[in-house]
Design goal:
mainly alpha, 2 helices
């Protein structure tokens, strides 16, 4: 499983757990955890997209 899919799964699990949380503090903590995993997934996806683009265009050329 790609790492981004794993991060999305962690976020989903945190959200589902938040729905069953017994206290507001637990719910807020789990929602914050879901937010963190979501941000990690988005950053990883952006990194993968950037790396793919860099591979397509080749090494940077600097004119001097």
């Amino acid at each position: 499983m790609p790492i981004t899919d794993q991060y999305w799964q962690y976020a989903k699990e945190a959200i589902l757990s938040a729905c069953d949380a017994k206290t507001d503090d637990d719910r807020q903590g789990l929602l914050e955890l879901a937010r963190t995993w979501t941000q990690a997934a988005l950053v990883e996806r952006q990194s993968i997209n950037y790396d793919g683009l860099a591979a397509l265009i080749g090494p940077a050329r600097h004119a001097r």
